[in-house]
Specification:
The chain is an alpha/beta fold. Helix content is 43%, strand content 19%.
């Protein structure tokens, strides 16, 4: 057994391939809060680092917060099939580098994505067997509106626009494997944690299971 195998062994003695955990939701439903809690609680979960053409903000570190590239480089990466998913938002391009994510999965690490339904569709087309998709719903439309207004970050016009967009985003819920209704953040985090635990035990991800079971049946 190699050193890498040993570091990715679970409690049953079986090496595991990592997975891509995607969280999506309308703005204000709580996916970012859930993501932060998961990352704080789980050392084997890594946040996907996107490439972007937007300029770095103060205190942002290249390679940690984003991979900062110019548009020409970004377009070349698209042409070369370097992204699992990509999109243009408010005039800036964002994309998930495929090689970085696949290296983590191969090493037995799980990667967390905080992306929308369009990005999730692209990942599903590129690597469906590695994908675990979770859509986070608010408990009610009024609760969603309250969360958006209570943040105090947006004008009434922006809140109205986000509420209008929420209906379209929610309409894609059926494209996801799991649905979590975020009435209580602690409960929602527990539910996503349970999903993650179950998916880590999926037989198809236990890459050394055949050899392990063979050893058990032979009395090794």
């Amino acid at each position: 057994m190699t050193e890498t195998d040993q570091t990715t062994m679970d409690h049953k003695g079986s090496a595991r391939r990592g997975l891509m955990l995607v969280l999506s939701s309308p703005s204000g439903a709580g996916k970012s809060s859930i993501a932060r809690r998961l990352l704080d609680d789980d050392p084997n979960l890594t946040l996907s680092v996107s490439a972007t053409t937007r300029p770095p903000r103060p205190n942002e570190v290249d390679g940690k917060d984003y991979h900062f590239v110019d548009q020409a480089r970004f377009d070349k990466m698209i042409a070369g099939g370097a992204f699992l998913e990509y999109a243009t938002v408010f005039g800036n391009s964002y994309g998930t580098p495929k090689a970085d994510v696949m290296a983590l999965l191969d090493a037995g690490h799980d990667v967390l994505f905080d992306i929308d339904w369009q990005g999730t569709q692209q990942i599903a087309e590129a690597a469906a067997s590695d994908l675990v998709s979770v859509f986070v719903l608010p408990p009610s439309r009024s609760a969603l509106h309250e969360r958006l207004t209570s943040r105090g970050q947006d004008s009434k016009e922006v809140v109205a626009a986000r509420m209008a967009k929420a209906s379209d985003e929610i309409s894609h819920y059926a494209e996801y494997a799991y649905i979590v209704i975020n009435s209580d953040l602690d409960v929602a985090v527990s539910e996503v944690t349970a999903i993650l635990a179950a998916e880590r035990l999926r037989r198809s991800r236990q890459t050394a299971l055949t050899g392990f079971v063979r050893g058990l049946t032979r009395g090794e």
